[in-house]
């Protein structure tokens, strides 16, 4: 999600298999996920192998894959209603940003696409406000879900954030707002629409418009100035679909939301490294508050050790 992964504070306490206290919560997970389509609980199931293989192929080609109908159809209204009940608790900010999330006063030539200023109307409900029995929290903490996501991305390890706010968020985009064009700092993102807007709010992306070796500034500029339609793909996401995305090379946005209904997305933040926690400054910007964990992590980062004072 955005550029939430700002720092690492030590305290690497989660690991995929321990994340739910080592418990096997496969029954809880099977109650949430459509296990006929997505048999996560059985690593030897040919259906699971096929789903993982398709996800890997699509991620390699496009940096994006959607697993439709991931959540059981009979739970879609619960998924929506849980998010809708949380949405008023979102911290709302409007930020002036550019597609690279670098400071707006960075010295750059006039034609550089980072000089195009965009407005992001952001609202996140932080993890500590999301009940532990909410469907998105059950998914986020499930070792089977984590193993499945890691397999789809081809990662040996996957860890929950140690950050008590940023690990799991509900992203609220209200009518009139958008999440403008950007590249992610994170290598990969896992998300799920929980409530569709009436209009707009479409996930649009430009697969691999830049590469590790080339920024392709002219192409990025074309998209930002509405002259790059040839690069743009649009996803028809439905609530309960699981989206896996590599946003570091694929410029993407959520188009402006129209109508009366907010767009809600659960963002599941994981990392290959344990112990990820946001900086004090970024956490305050995104959530309007910080917790002792953020302050302690900043202290550790400054001292470079975890010895007592
Ligand atoms: O809400 C979405 O669907 C996309 C969000 C996104 O691009 C991000 O959080 O970086
Ligand atoms: Fe993004």
Automatic annotation (TrEMBL):
Quote the Pfam families the UniProt record gives. HalD
Q: Which residues form a coiled coil?
A: none
Where do the segments described as Disordered lie?
1-20
Which InterPro entries does this UniProt record tie to the protein?
Answer: BesD/HalB-like (IPR056470), Oxoglu/Fe-dep_dioxygenase_dom (IPR005123)
Q: Name one GO molecular function term.
A: oxidoreductase activity
Keyword tags: Iron, Metal-binding, Oxidoreductase
Listed Gene3D superfamilies: q2cbj1_9rhob like domain
**Domain Fe2OG dioxygenase residues, every copy:** 160-274
Q: Which domain of life is it from?
A: Bacteria
The record's similarity note reads: Belongs to the iron/ascorbate-dependent oxidoreductase family.
Name of the protein in question: Fe2OG dioxygenase domain-containing protein
Q: Which organism is it from?
A: Nocardia pseudobrasiliensis
